[in-house]
Amino acid sequence: MKELSPPKVEELFNLRSFRESNREEINAVTKMLKKRGKELWIQASLADEARFVQVGEDVSFVINQNINFTQNCIGSCRFCSYRVELKENKTDKYRLSLDDIGVEIDKAIARGCTEVCVQGGLDPELSFDFYINILKTVKAKTSNIHIHAFSPSEIAFMSQISGESVEDIFIELKKNGLDSFPGTSAEILVDDIRRIICPDKISTSQWINITLTGHLVGLKSTSTMMYGHIESLEDQAEHLVLLKDIQSHSKNFTEFIPLPFIHTNTVLYRYLGARPGSTGMQDLALFSTARLYFGEVIPNIQASWVKLGPKFAQISLNTGVNDLGGTLFSEKITKSAGGSHGEEKTVEEFVELIRDSNRIPVQRDTLYNRLRTH
Ligand code: SF4
Q1: What pTM did the predictor assign?
Q2: CATH: 1.10.3720.10, 3.20.20.70, 1.10.260.40, 2.40.50.140. Which one for 26-373?
């Protein structure tokens, strides 16, 4: 395969000296992330009150289906067990065809999904047309399903294989049915950490500039952070300060999703000394910090039940969280890393978890419009 040139992305955000010029804010957020014991419970209680004021008693979720369309990937992320290297004897065993994707869409329609979340590896056998054809395949089946697809690192890859600018890639994807994109591949937005955990992935400034380009084209995205591996609390704080700063520019983040590192089958844990994910107290400190620090700027804080487990996700509802994410039919990425909380949740299970927390279960769409109160 020929050497890929860097993605063509305009510099909309200048990262130089960000840490120095935001030192005080980063220190204040680090202090919040460090809270333990009684101080943590006080912070959690304040976050719970802030949640009530900002978004009320609703706990939302979306009925969605994952489509992870290719495991072939030229990346080398050391926290990833989903990727499969393309061997000499090429095989499409690990890649869905457009017909396969069509079958998945039929299943999503039958299950009442309002969203499909489409992501895959950086597969060197694919052309940009394939990505466009995925969108066309979905839209040919139904116009009622929101297509939430392609992380910033996949967008960079499309720019590399096609030679088109990131802006043109987004415009073309949007024209063909892309409705929003996942803010995954952010991991930790600190380059010293990225060089160890995902050395071939887009840099912090590339992630920010690609995300902002998507936002400027009129697409919303989620924001995420993968934590609990080798990063420090100060790195987490810097990531949160960056996300708030981006949001103050574009206002197009729909939510913040903290993603605890699932360690079991990963190189990062087995050979590179990473921690085995976060502790429960670290999770609660992060949720409450996110609620208090982001406030109205990013008012939706999601707990990922697939990473945390449903019981802990339910506990997190008392610490600033107001969303439980999606049913995630056919989730594969967390499972391959050793996650053990199952591949999907039914609506009834969500409703039970939420009602048992004295809160109101609300089915939402991808952009947080209320669809049904249970
Ligand atoms: S996280 Fe994504 S880009 Fe990285 S190795 Fe896995 S599939 Fe490839």
Answers
A1: 0.95
A2: 3.20.20.70
